[in-house]
């Protein structure tokens, strides 16, 4: 497999920018009930402000500047990855090497509604050379159907295929042994990758979105502990937060897991519809993070200008959940060193006893941060990765010969 990389720069045609502006000019907002605020979804004043700014300021004055900044900050490439049964897909990715030659190769995998921009803030921290902590060679791909990667054209592209792309990409870059990090779908995909390619290629994995299953007769000791000992105040609050999310925050999940093409017409044709669909998750999934309008619109614009179109990204829910219905509700041991970081405003917070697996070697509980930890609190996520792979940790040196520091 060739190590050759094709450099990539974001360069959206003027015609695409003009079309986006015209569509925004033709928007039609719904009405809104009095005092509804966020109870019914994104408030109308929020959408009015963001739409006007997108149309009148961001497109004509900000996008080209942001495009140039992204191209300058993020070393981007594309590479053809052959996926069994699906042909060769052009995969877009960021690849930043540390100046430390023996740094740890790390694959970062985003979720939905994330994208490769989630690695933007952690990248300079991870590659930083220091005698006090390990350094990393970082690869952050756009998953198939996201960003500037090709989307699959045939049905059935599920977790095994996403894992295949991840592993083949790392191998093609010369990283035969590497570690992974991911949240949201990134957690599920890196776990799948570890199960399929662990020990030989994937040496350790870390997630800020640990997943587990409810106590049941399949896990009798856990079920007994649940009823006899109960949970701490913090765990009880976490369960309540998880319940609220299931009751009020999973409509998008059910729609995309059952009829992604139906919502896809809105996502592909209406920039206002796309903005509302994704902005709701950005705003409600964070720990009081103050998103700037520019941040939000860059994020949404990546979806709007994505190579396969925004509908392609939604299909991951349909295909993956059809093939693996318990992808988000099972406790799985990968058999390789595993690390968990717990953030207080994560959308799902289960008791640690429900999440425990024999290969768990690192845990860290943070005081702030939500679902988009890499973007919200990059320094905290990076600190955990440095600790997990640093001296004194069971994961130190698990990538043979690549400790990253002395």
Automatic annotation (TrEMBL):
Residues 6-118 form the Epoxide hydrolase N-terminal domain. The keyword Hydrolase applies. The active site is at 184 (nucleophile), 317 (proton donor), 371 (proton acceptor). InterPro entries: AB_hydrolase_fold (IPR029058), Epox_hydrolase-like (IPR000639), Epoxide_hydro_N (IPR010497), Epoxide_hydrolase (IPR016292). The keyword Hydrolase applies. Keywords: Aromatic hydrocarbons catabolism, Hydrolase. It comes from the Eukaryota. It holds the Pfam family EHN. One of its GO terms (molecular function) is epoxide hydrolase activity. One of its GO terms (biological process) is epoxide metabolic process. Belongs to the peptidase S33 family. This is Alpha/beta-hydrolase. It comes from Coprinellus micaceus (Glistening ink-cap mushroom).
